[in-house]
Design goal:
The protein is α/β, with parallel strands linked by helices. The chain contains 15 helices and 14 strands. Helices cover 40% and strands 20% of the residues. The strands form two sheets. An eight-stranded mixed sheet has the order 5-4-3-2-1-6-8-7, sandwiched between helices.
Length: 393
């Protein structure tokens, strides 16, 4: 049976899933983490079985080979059954507006867009090239996190810079997590049995990376993320919105280069920087009752979400649907309760019992002016559907 292998590469890890092409069911999934470090972990889950292996200093090249070797050795699939490989790519700019078959020119363009996602695009391009090497006759497709936001109205997309610079250098909000936000708005419309074009939606993708998106008339209307994934909400290690003047200020005070300040904003800030303890919401919540910095980190995190959500309510002229998704949004009833309580002035009323149950679906009361949904996001399924549409063409 033909299958699609989906890859999601990070700086030190890669997550993957293998789907049946016909019915879009998951055959197997896996994770490789702590690459190039002691205790590199390799894992495959298929059915009720789990295969794990730990080794030191696993290279990116070897990890790509191992995924295919183990799929064959464990008799999960034949390599001949892999019809194509799909790759999540964060930044596609205004260049890529749909799932795209990859060739040398596409890889070059992905690398050229690294300014928009310096922590993501180079590694994603590297993994495309690695999979081309180990599966040279299998077509590779890229699906872009930014493509959902390419139609965002200019009033929300551009910054208040000299307009000629905006045009010459393509400076705008590209938005990220677009694969997730697009999946969520379609899923919400389907669940409510309403045409997407008739709904005004605000979607909260809350995880290690977090973003808020507004959708109107079936199209992306606004995104909290900007020219890069750094801006917007407080995230696990990313600062979110900061005054740009802090870059030269910290360069002078700490004797850092501009790239080192950006590294500070991207990798040492956010929940980690605020709490001084962890970038994991579970750790911070557990310690927040006795640790003032952890409590502060939660307050800042929630405040940013409420601020952007309230702003989008006003810009949309009200909202029909508010969606919670992402690892943090899906798994923390207390966070949903806190945020919705602070949005009560906008007519949001959460059903406490439904919220605590944490099941997919509507979690607001019948009296709520806004439908609040808990929807586990499924970026991989969205990618499969987009790639299938291109294959069928």
């Amino acid at each position: 049976m033909p299958k699609i292998l989906l890859m999601n590469a990070g700086s030190s890890s890669v997550k993957w899933k293998l789907f049946e092409l016909t019915d879009e069911s998951v055959v197997a999934k896996g994770l490789v983490e702590r690459m190039l470090a002691k205790g590199s972990k390799f894992e495959i889950k298929y059915g009720t079985e789990v295969y794990q292996e730990t080794t030191d200093n696993l290279t990116y090249e070897r990890a790509a080979e191992m995924i295919l070797e183990k799929l064959t050795a464990l008799k999960i699939t034949s390599l001949a059954d892999i019809a194509c490989v799909g790759h999540r790519v964060v930044a596609g700019g205004q260049t890529f507006k749909k799932a795209t078959r990859v060739d040398a020119d596409v890889i070059a363009q992905i690398l050229a867009l690294s300014d928009h996602a310096p922590l993501h695009n180079p590694m994603e391009a590297k993994y495309i090239e690695l999979m081309q090497q180990v599966l040279p006759d299998v077509p590779q497709y890229a699906v872009f996190d930014s493509q959902f936001f390419t139609q965002m109205p200019e009033e929300n997309a551009i910054f208040s810079l000299p307009y000629e610079l905006t045009k010459e250098y393509g400076i705008r909000r590209y938005g990220e997590h677009g694969i997730s936000h697009e999946y969520l708005v379609h899923k919400a419309a389907q669940m409510l049995d309403r045409p997407l074009e008739e709904l005004k939606l605000i979607t909260l993708h809350l995880g290690s990376g977090s973003s808020v998106s507004a959708t109107k008339d079936g199209k992306a209307f606004a995104s909290s993320m900007g020219f890069t994934p750094l801006t917007g909400l407080t995230m696990g290690t990313r600062a979110g919105d900061v005054d740009p003047s802090l870059v030269p200020f910290l360069m002078e005070k700490l004797s850092l280069s501009a790239s080192e300040v950006l590294e500070l904003f991207n990798e040492k800030s956010g929940l980690l920087g605020l709490s001084g303890y962890s970038d994991d919401m579970r750790d911070i919540k557990e310690k927040s009752a006795t640790d003032a910095q952890c409590r502060l980190a939660l307050d800042v995190y929630e405040n940013k979400i409420v601020g952007y959500t309230g702003s989008y309510f006003a810009q949309l002229g009200g909202a029909d649907v508010l969606v919670f998704a992402g690892g943090i949004g899906e798994n923390n009833a207390w966070l949903r309760q806190d945020i919705c309580a602070r949005l009560a002035c906008l007519g949001v009323e959460l059903d406490q019992t439904l919220n605590e149950q944490g099941q997919e679906g509507v979690i607001s009361t019948s009296a709520s002016k806004v439908k609040v949904l808990l929807l586990p996001t499924n970026e991989e399924l969205a990618m499969v559907e987009q790639i299938k549409a291109q294959l069928e063409k």
